[in-house]
Fold each of these.
Amino acid sequence: MKVDVLLFAQLRDAISADHLELEVEDGTTVSQLAEELMASRGDERVRGLPLRYAVDETFVSDDYRLRDGDSVALIPPVSGG
Amino acid sequence: MKVDVLLFAQLRDAISADHLELEVEDGTTVSQLAEELMASRGDERVRGLPLRYAVDETFVSDDYRLRDGDSVALIPPVSGG
Amino acid sequence: MSAPSSSNDTTVEITDDVIDAAAFVGQLRPDSGAVVTFSGVVRNHNDGREVERIHYDCYREMAQREGERIVNGIKEQFDVRAVRLVHRVGDLNVGEVSLLVVVTAAHRGDAFAAIEALVGLVKERLPIWKKERYADKESKWL
Amino acid sequence: MSAPSSSNDTTVEITDDVIDAAAFVGQLRPDSGAVVTFSGVVRNHNDGREVERIHYDCYREMAQREGERIVNGIKEQFDVRAVRLVHRVGDLNVGEVSLLVVVTAAHRGDAFAAIEALVGLVKERLPIWKKERYADKESKWL
């Protein structure tokens, strides 16, 4: 199935994209998706970065299982304010 | 000896003056002065009103002994803010 | 506004004029990440009665000096930069600002702790008295 | 400023424009005696380095929605009237305001408690990221 991955801040810099359309296996969790992406596309700037995840503009837990068409954002530690 | 007494808020209303020059005996404390003044000039609006005292624009304790020429303010409960 | 006193980024002002919040807060320096303000606003009701306006009486010289003691104490007690206080006295209408205080600090926790303490001291120690005038034309010292 | 959302005296705004604090705070109603504001200001230094400017990246749609969840939660949890939040994103200079929040309440204790909780949640949950650019031309995501 296909998911849209949104990237921000240092992740956008490291992966040189603000979003990616990825093919993932059924049952993949958001944290598995992130791990695979970090392994294939990440660099030393973002490895080990603690991430949170949002689907449909709402935080989800690490073990949220992706569905076809989901738009998932990888959320590095926020620093607004 | 002579002291100047400053009155504010409901005390000014009750005594119909914003300050009084009073003759007091040596050794009189600020709370004694206030008690005598309330007995002679106060009315039901201010009897029992808890007071603090200031001499030279600085809070003093109830047993501060007045000196000749002191300017003493009777401070009803404050309500600024 | 009259007679501001300033030393070491602390100011105190007792004024008869409308408080210009933008001007008051505007003159801050960019070395502080957190700016917290507290405004006391004249409410249109109190204790179930409709308030029409209020009058603040003040022991002016002492309010100035006591205000300075308060802000200097806050500046000593907390890790903050600017501590500023302006209190309006005289006649105020509903919706107008009677008290404005500002605290700036590098970190917000210090600013919040300091401003709460500051407003508490103002309400406990500043020689200022409020008289409410109600819609039924009665009035009362609080 | 763009796209304010409003319901029941709560507003959230994510904007590219300069925050007009006077306009933002000015539209409050006289039923609240206590008005507390917090401003986050771009500091001229951080961690011992001289900061020249900063850039805020933002997941805009989510920041708007998460902001609304935060202010609505504060409004439910505390006895307050208005809860308002505006966050600026994009490029900011030293001394400019990045975040402004306002809480009004009948009583100051509620306003202080609510605004501390609000700013804490903003810093924990709003999907906004800051990149500092230093005087030596290096830059870093925080």
Note: The first helix of chain B runs from residue 9 to 15.
Amino acid sequence: MTLSQRLANWARMKSPWITLFNSGACNACDIEVIAVLTPRFDVERFGILAKGSPRHADILVVTGPVTRKQAPRLRRIWEQMPEPKYVIAMGACGASGGVFRGLYHVVDGVENVIPVDVFVAGCPPRPDEIINAVVACLGLLKEDLAHGGKAWRTKPKVIERVVPTEGTPVPPKPAEVPA
Amino acid sequence: MDAILLAVYILLFPGFLFLLAYAFFFQFLDRKISARMQNRVGPPFLQPFADFVKMLGKEVIDVKGMDRKAFDAAPILALAAVMTAFLYVPIVGNSPLAFQGDLILVLYLLTLPTIVLFLLGWLSRNVFATIGGVRAVTQMFIYEVPFFLALLTPALMAGSWSITDIVAWQQSHLWLAVLQPIGFVVALIGLQAKLERTPFDIPEAETEIVAGPWTELTGRRLALMHLTLDVSMVVGSALVAALFLGGPLVPWTITPDWLSWIVGFALFFVKTLGVLLVLASIKVATGRIRIDQLNDVGWKYLATAAIVQVMIVLLMNYWWVSA
Amino acid sequence: MAEVVVPIGPHHPALKEPVNFKVVADGETIVRLELDVSYNHRGIEKAAEQRDFVRVVPLLERVCGICSHSHTTVFVKGIEEAMKLQLPPRAQYIRTIVAELERMHSHFLWLGVAAHEIGFNTLFMWTWRDREAVQDMLEEMTGNRVNYGINEVGGVRRDLTTDQIQAALKRLPHLEDRIAKYVDMVNHEQTMMIRFRGVGKLSRVDALKLGAVGPTARASGVDYDIRKDDPYIAYADVPWKVVTDTHGDVYGRTLVRIGELQESLQIVRHCLENLPAGPIKVTSPRAAPKGEVLSRYEAPRGELVHFIRTNNTDKVERLDIRTPTLANWTSVAVSLVHQNLADIPVVVAAIDPCLSCTSRITIVNERGRKTGELTWDELSAHGRAFYRNGRRA
Amino acid sequence: MSELLKLEQVARAMEGIGTPEAVKANRIRVPTTPAKVKEAVRRALTDLACDHVVQIAAVDNGKAFELIYHLTGPHRTVVAIAIELPRDKPEVATASDLLPPAGIYERQIHDLLGIVFVGHPDLKRIILNEDWPANEFPMRKDWKPNPNTFYGGVRKEAT
């Protein structure tokens, strides 16, 4: 890689700016993300700053199971962010809707609205787990730059169905499992 | 001075490259001091440089129906204005480009970034940006008068409109900060307001109107505007250091030429750091005041203090001349 | 005279949670305020009807992250009242300790966020650093910094060991003088006094008429506090007093909250020192007899109410949650009219909105004039006109 | 902190409207009919010195809708005025002119249960999102989400 490429990569690794978006969460994750900025966990020493406007941010931290009213707004915020952008979905709600899965006003999980790069486990995840997630996201950024964009790791949307050989019992499709 | 030395002066040493490095160093120091005062660790040394390079690499987003060329040109104009202002401030010894009235030119060039901010707010077709831009101009009307008065009183006392002459005058007299304490305080507060830092960062009030005029800036435009703010912080503190704290000259003359340059630069370095320390502690110790409160503070206290200072200087001039 | 419609939210740095204000402002003063809050509605009340008493407690724990213990305690207390269960005193004391610790960490959090709203980041950093001490205490006792999961129908799931109690007692003195320091800082720091005094004023009559609750009402002289009016868990036999103030503005609410911080600290110390021995839970029957319970609780933000109707099954027939922030929205909307645009975050933060509990809306129309969307040149014309004739356009 | 209301006090204030019964020491329930609920609330505000609406609870018990107005005051007793509304035409007069915060509570009940409050200044959508179908009320016992209507959020093809 040329010198300027390496310099650009170094700079992107050293100053990830995050912006926080609460998509209908119980705000436990939000206060943990804000606790990350305060003296005990202080992320400014890694160059992480919390920016107000999505225009200035690189990483979008989404908390909560996306409620139906917040989904279009989450989509618009994600589209407003300038390229090399990454999304961290916080906690169990971000991954699958968590304890609110299946409720009538909730779109389970951030995955159904915007493509997500890093999931953080926990309800709420501890501040040091959040810092670990940002570091993992930076690792992902490093690999993406090496492979030139995210195409290499996005799994294909359609999952082909494996035709079972006869004799082996076909597992019932999830819908058939009695509720 | 022949052309090559002048080119080196403008481009290399106290000019373009040195100013960039010094601006990054100032931003690092500012963030480190305020972080330590808030009992946090604070950013690493190369953080401002990393932020700048990262912002350069980001995608540039143009809002629909925006005048692209003007939006691109505005940050460059602001940066250029502030950088030329730095050439007239004496750093090492006397600045070779000094002429009678360069103080007025420097003050004018320092106000250009605020007008550019207003322009950016207006061009970016965003309600937050417009209100931020209108607030930036309102704030400029308020602090500009006392700030100019406070910076012009040294010229009155030293009897010349060139910064280099004022610095030379202070070589033989007391420092102007001692002779004009009120002017010094008003200048510091005005500088804090010009750089839109916390007690006066009303246009960019992050928690009220997202990011004010900065909202629609992305990629290299944002990088240039951040750089403009850092450079204007360096130029502002260098100006206050030169006018009130005696600048880089020492009362007794040092024989070998290069040694006096080094001593001059060391003095400049220490004095600008002192000003930065004061600015950073003001930023940490106070919250943001509203635009109408700034109006009261600006006109009631700052303006009257500046006028009183001018009166005192005129009286002192009268007695010295007659005595 | 055209007005500027400023949308603040739902994604906005001042608001840690999604609320959307359509503020109709004339220059810097607010004429009309449209508030649209229901971004956090998840349908918890419907889900609660399908979960039995064991599985509904974790769900109710996550109605709101900051007052999670409040929601579980008020629900569990209601079910125990319906079942006519008699709880061992040790369980009541442990619930009170965790409740008051949660009030302390919530008020510390609020103090930091309120300072951040006016740009005073140093106090934000300091208060959140001290809050970590409270978080450590909670984590040692309940195993988690937030969402403690210590309540269940019939008692408490974890016991307090003596060294946990000693560790907690050792931390209290340090917190005490930190709180004292914040009291004199709020009274003497210039910019905070300018930005907090006289902002968002609410008279005693208005506070009662508009149904304000908690610190917002107590700052205007209303002395309603459920812990005193309808004592529950262990508040009856703990010596403490209701903190009220008469200023009625954001400054008054700050004083009330810091006063409550000091009271909570005394309650925690008292409960820790004379924690009664005995079992920590009692076995509860699976189903609750038919009945209707109005369970009230003093959450950090105000009076939280769970209306529970049970029908001889192990599930709730209806759970109606009325959260404190919902009651405060009307008063904040009224007290914001005529204020400055820059004061919105401060006044909104002053009621310490917990939007995860709330998802309601109100419209306050001050002079009822029609204000349509503004075209671009109307806006710029307004800007010039506004400043040409000195802010009287 | 005046002492608790007596049962006879409430009975005297509410005679002609409903017979109160003391559910608990500090909670008195007054069942009444939808037509007289506004009069009951007005009397509670004036005669019984209630000045604080605790909550308006709305319950769908399968057969009909129940509305319970909880009011309290310096006497620290909760006066609960309970009414029952028919399932087919659930209408009741609004209480938002007497109790300003009731404006919010009634709009939420209208959204979730479909009870119409006659005379409410603007009974617009509050709690559900913009493109939630208008005539579906999620908190009703007989409501089931049917998969083919679009309840809001981002349409499938947009992700």
Note: Residues 29 and 124 of chain A are 5 Å apart (CA to CA).
Amino acid sequence: MPIISLRTALNQAIAEEMERDENVFLLGEEVAEYNGAYKVSEGLLDKFGPKRVIDTPISEGAFTGLAVGAATYGLRPIVEYMTWSFSLVAFDQIINNAGQVRYMAGGQFEVPLVLRGNSGGGLRVGATHSHTPENWYANIPALTVITPAFPDDAKGLLKSAIRSNNPIIFIENEILYNYKDEVPEGEHLTPIGKARIRREGKDITFIANSASTHRALEAAETLAKSGIDAEVVDLRTIKPLDFDLIAESVRRTNHVVIVEENKPFAGWGAQVAYMIQRHLFDELDAPVIRVASLDAPQPYNAKLEDYLLPSADRVVKAAKEVLA
Amino acid sequence: MPIISLRTALNQAIAEEMERDENVFLLGEEVAEYNGAYKVSEGLLDKFGPKRVIDTPISEGAFTGLAVGAATYGLRPIVEYMTWSFSLVAFDQIINNAGQVRYMAGGQFEVPLVLRGNSGGGLRVGATHSHTPENWYANIPALTVITPAFPDDAKGLLKSAIRSNNPIIFIENEILYNYKDEVPEGEHLTPIGKARIRREGKDITFIANSASTHRALEAAETLAKSGIDAEVVDLRTIKPLDFDLIAESVRRTNHVVIVEENKPFAGWGAQVAYMIQRHLFDELDAPVIRVASLDAPQPYNAKLEDYLLPSADRVVKAAKEVLA
Amino acid sequence: MHTVDTPGRITASPTSAPDAPLLPVLKPDEKHAMLRKMVLIRRFEEKSEQAYQKQQIRGFCHVYTGQEAIAVGTESVINRDDAVITAYRDHGHALARGMCPKACMAELLGKATGCSKGKGGSMHFFDKKKHFYGGHGIVGGQTPLGLGIAFAQKYTNSNRLTLCYLGDGAINQGVFHESLNIAALWKIPVIYIIENNLYAMGTSVARSSAGDPLVKRADGYDMAGIVANGMDIDDVRIKTAEAVNLARTESLPSLMEIRAYRYRGHSMTDPRKYRTREEEEQQRARDPIEIYKQRLLDENVINEKDYEDMEAGVASEVQEAYDFAVNSPDPEIEEVFDDIFAPETQIDEIERRPKWSYGD
Amino acid sequence: MHTVDTPGRITASPTSAPDAPLLPVLKPDEKHAMLRKMVLIRRFEEKSEQAYQKQQIRGFCHVYTGQEAIAVGTESVINRDDAVITAYRDHGHALARGMCPKACMAELLGKATGCSKGKGGSMHFFDKKKHFYGGHGIVGGQTPLGLGIAFAQKYTNSNRLTLCYLGDGAINQGVFHESLNIAALWKIPVIYIIENNLYAMGTSVARSSAGDPLVKRADGYDMAGIVANGMDIDDVRIKTAEAVNLARTESLPSLMEIRAYRYRGHSMTDPRKYRTREEEEQQRARDPIEIYKQRLLDENVINEKDYEDMEAGVASEVQEAYDFAVNSPDPEIEEVFDDIFAPETQIDEIERRPKWSYGD
Ligand SMILES: Cc1ncc(C[n+]2csc(CCOP(=O)(O)OP(=O)(O)O)c2C)c(N)n1
Ligand SMILES: Cc1ncc(C[n+]2csc(CCOP(=O)(O)OP(=O)(O)O)c2C)c(N)n1
Ligand SMILES: [Mg+2]
Ligand SMILES: [Mg+2]
């Protein structure tokens, strides 16, 4: 299998789906002539032309609403937010229009829409640019939230998202764009709403997503040295949550640490922890512990930001506490 | 003690604080000449004049930002959102400006700001108008989130909020505006960040806020008939969470049901449930169960909306399951 | 082609002489039909108010009384397959679009037979078959949606256009300005129609918006700004035809300001203390239905008898709609979980696993 | 008082003849100081770029090179106690405000001695004492803040005003339009200054904004629109003085468009493929520092020797700032939890209970 970067995987997914269906188009800031602020859309303007690869003004609210309107008409827009932090100015359009229109219309309209971009910390861009909004959007009943951690899932899930007839929140992470791994050639679709065990283990289950999956894997390797065998579940899709797989794993390990980059209060990990104790109460030998970002705004200073972000060290520490 | 409505309690709180400090002013849609869409600001224009009670255009983003800017300059604005659902168009201003400016400036500026209005369901106003945003805002480190359930707390907490030197998210509930109860006369301040036991009980702890506190109390009365003695903790402040009181209660009852109106995925109740199993694992005799809104958009039809909202019946059912 | 000279003064733009070629002369039955539509809206809204008093309609209900000539007049110069989208004061636009009064009244009563299955209510009428895209409750929130529908119309080379209505208060939502800029920049065939009924709830235009006329805001985007008199359906038609011509022939957007008056309160609970009864009387004196009725009488298009028959026909149509709504069933409780997700057709259904509930 | 006739053509407005009474004639040392400030900004940014290449500066870093005359010129016609707020390209405004280069460079390096204690970084400079309100990273996000600061200045009868800068791309954020409307409606003494450097990242003005000149958007709000040549600091001063006069004497807002050129890439990682080197050369040919330097030489305000001394002085000042920054300590890890909440003074401290952690 060819080894490509997560960035290239996303680029291939968009290109292949645009090839397949001319109702699919991409719009966002700098996606066309600049080839994308983070180069995810590299080459797409040349391939598909300005009708389908569209540079927008800096008007997230309007071009998000534009995409929702176009989707109700039957097109299949892909919106790129330069980063998800900038989706905050489009929050009403995402929640009240993308998220409610079909229901309010009694199901008359479909909203085949993908909203995508990168998110997360570690880039030293400070408090306004480092949000991880998956918990906010997953709180909206009609929204599906996907956060891939590996190139193959990024490609397969983005292709599935573009083919879905429903609004999809697709949250990437810039620090993973250069991550390289094998990606199957040709038609490769990954099912939405299914988690994946990225490392099998018998002692404890780590539940993570996106960049935190890699933190969990790193922690698992460290623990392996001290004879602790951790299983790493990469959620891939935050909502709908694949609790079938979570349950199956927790029933085997009876110990859980959740790794998430959300700020802790009501992050997605709180929901997962709630469900584990709610549905698997007797399976737990110890409390579920969440390793999340610290409850402070994102500082610019690198040492402070690294201290704030969830780290493999903190996961190791939490695992030892859970297993103590 | 005089018995007044929660609406009047809020009105008194604003009036008293505006009396006390001329840097306090109120702005929002229809707050002045119309006396408030929900009459919370009744009479304030006559009392304080148009300089301090200000009708705004329908520009939530701009007048929220205006208030943040004025607060950094030293004024103490109170912003009224006609309902909190309309704060979604101001989301970026609330999160990135009210929520981050002090930190990004290394603490140079204070943001003494109260953002308030009603929220919640039961009004038959449909999917776009029935949001309960406390979980989203509580996810922001620098924001304090208050959701009163009774007139005395509404007055005492709003007065404290106006006097706070920090940005406060003050979320009321329209179905409680006419709720009447005793409110102490004269200077009455309620501490922010302290929950309150509204009903003492020994068998199970109900943790709720706002309108859900009343649902919990109703359920407690029903259960009393079948000999079950439920304690009802009204959080009053969602963040910072008064876990001291929660812990004290759970240690006595060892059983918990959380009642919240948030849509379930990553609602505030998930955070409370997480913390209970995290910090009080051995105190729990059964899983914590959350009674929340159903995971669907708000329907207009009354029967459907009542079915979607958390109800005393569902709390009773959950309590029996927890105690079974 | 800004058609206002002295700010505030409404003037005919060069191309809008009564004999404007843009506008084919109406046949008598078409004129009759327009008058009937206005009357239908007026009576429908009276019935809505009664139903609200009986608490059969809940939540918010915003009636269109007084603005009938705007919806009917603008609608009369576009095609059935063009698209329409508006805000929460949507009953008039829905009926003007030709939506079934029964389905509309049933929606107001929250019934399963409603145009949104009882899930949308007064603010959220929808009818895909009629290309009616709602009915939107968040002020200004529909303006980028209208842009997107028109974008799709252009993308698919349909030569269709979209009418997107908004209120005078709504022009102060930022997303509307973002939409104006994109519409002008990309030449999107959307016509934004500000229904200036002089008030946003209790706030007069002068207290909410700097700049007069409101269409001046189009200048900054080099976009056409057109002002029309919403009390005269023929003026509405003439001015709208200009905008339609721009959209149809050059795929250009326009901003229209059509001035009328909201006869009733903002919603059912508004005592209208912010304005005088005298003002209301003066405004009602130039009633759009009366003006057009008189014109048709003068032109001998109709006689008094015709009008009485029309009124009678409308009355029974509205009564039927009401009876239909009252006798229709509520949706089944379980339907609360329907209509959230569209069925998948290009991928396998996404598993939602209800057995692992997110909350109880 | 729209000062543009043919769209796009920059013309002097009636009141802005060089002898405009609004503008006191500058003393030689004041002219010298303005030139020095521009040179200081230019050299400071060169040092910033070097530090970025060494990865001492992380994240985003947007330099002001080429736009110096805007910050220095506008700053020169307001008072120290007036307020300034801008976007993320804020180094120039901070230095023009008189903020300490040491504290600024230290902030770029994320040091505890930085003007935001290392928590803000390049995009988020702040200095309360200097009435510098940031440094804001969300495009357009600062525009309502500037409105609010000016609102407070008026509320407290301070007769102060606020300069709020934004980019040409930022004018398409809706909240900016909401702010223009409120500023005009309530007569708020805020001066919005669009720094039109022809690009928003890789997007030229023509590709992002309908309507030319950009200040035409002020017309819709009956607000003054003023265009200035940002390559000529004296033109900047004359035009800004008009806006300042409106704010000071009538508490009126203005919208200014000052045209300049962003010499460097948008940020440190921009290869500038979207424009030609020829274009860049042409623009650099009308360099604001060169123009003003030559003018002062011609006026015999300075001679070449003075200029060399000035350059030398600036060079060492910038080097000192850099050394100071490099030798300053990082904030302590624990400080991550400082500066979130202001101490309470009117109520008891709010208990935050760290022992019950929200997450580990
Ligand atoms: C973003 C937002 N803010 C506030 C409201 C509450 N609201 C509903 S209608 C309305 C007044 C709108 O007036 P206008 O735009 O003139 O329309 P009209 O009611 O006159 O048809 C307001 C403030 C809302 N629905 N959405
Ligand atoms: C709401 C939002 N969207 C997108 C961005 C990313 N972004 C940062 S700067 C910029 C370009 C702004 O250009 P302009 O306003 O002309 O200012 P300039 O960089 O030229 O000074 C963009 C798109 C952002 N910071 N905020
Ligand atoms: Mg109106
Ligand atoms: Mg620019």
Note: Chain B has a mean pLDDT of 98.
Amino acid sequence: MNRVSIQAEDFDPAVELAALEASGGGGVASFTGIVRGEGGLVALELEHYPAMTMAQVERIVAEASDRWPLLGVRVIHRFGRLEPGERIVFVGTASRHRTAALEACAFLIDWLKSRAPFWKKEHFADRTEWVEARVEDDAKAESWKR
Amino acid sequence: MNRVSIQAEDFDPAVELAALEASGGGGVASFTGIVRGEGGLVALELEHYPAMTMAQVERIVAEASDRWPLLGVRVIHRFGRLEPGERIVFVGTASRHRTAALEACAFLIDWLKSRAPFWKKEHFADRTEWVEARVEDDAKAESWKR
Amino acid sequence: MADLTLVYFAWVREAIGRDEERVERPAADATVATLIAALAARGGGYAEAFARPDRLRAALDQHFVPMDSPIGDAKELAIFPPVTGG
Amino acid sequence: MADLTLVYFAWVREAIGRDEERVERPAADATVATLIAALAARGGGYAEAFARPDRLRAALDQHFVPMDSPIGDAKELAIFPPVTGG
């Protein structure tokens, strides 16, 4: 019931939620990341490491399934050029228990931030800039360590 | 941008997510509760305290908005007779920051469990049974106290 | 002074056999707990519903209150089991 | 023994001006860090990309590794800034 997609195309959270709702659990949690259009951002460009990305995200999903009793996990991460308001990432989890679904969802998005081989470049009208990793993101991911 | 509905009718999480995605934040978190069909459950009957429910849930939402920088909150709680697989509750949050969206979503569902005036009765083929409040649910809600 | 409206939910309602009733306003120093004890003394469904006060919760005018709260001039007292929403 | 493929991402790739190249396999005791130092010594974009090793991360055969990891018989070494996905 676990599925990972790394894709350029947009996705439909409704379709993903419906599949998770049908997995027989009592709770479905989701997180959708959206490109913020702040500071005059024109577009975000996401580069990734194709040979590594899928395997790495699947490892993160397996770790989540190991730690929480999940009935389904769905991760979608986009790459390429994305404009403000566009979806970047989706994490959905289904479990018999709400806490498991919510915690696993938070864990997955924290780990994607600091362990999935993606890099973001911001395009403004007059310049481009690589997004710097945030120390807090790394700390967040570390905080899940057992 | 905060909206609460207490209703008998089903709802469409896709519509709710779309509205939250449009709120300008970088992250949208959601939790959907579903009736589990375990132990031969035929239906769940949800009773509530109409004069109190809306005001109480709005207080909980206001508390969440006070504690996290949220751009939008959506809570839907159903009452009446619900069959296995049907949605009971939806909590959606939008924020600039993923952690705020996820934490507020977890806070809201924990508080709905132990502070919203709803009571669940389980209908089986041969008997009915009022669901007992779980000590863990109360502990979960208490754990958010500042 | 106006009467007090009592409202019941879940198995409290079922044991008593009604969802609402009006009672004479209790004495000025009455608390939720003393009123519940007085109701339990009616016997029958009341005795059954209120046999274990630790399993009950209350709201005065739609706000949760502890059992030792004075009823004061509240208009509505709700008595019910711990909630199970969400 | 086969060559080693180097792959670069984000500003490392941009500074060097290519996303992939093959190099002669380094000595048996070489680590990621010693190879990066050797590459930096080429000057130009390499010196620029590898000026601050603390800002770099690496993966050997698609697994994150610390900078002091021996390269061993890995086929691919990726060098990149800290990731910013999610």
Note: Chain B has four helices and eight strands.
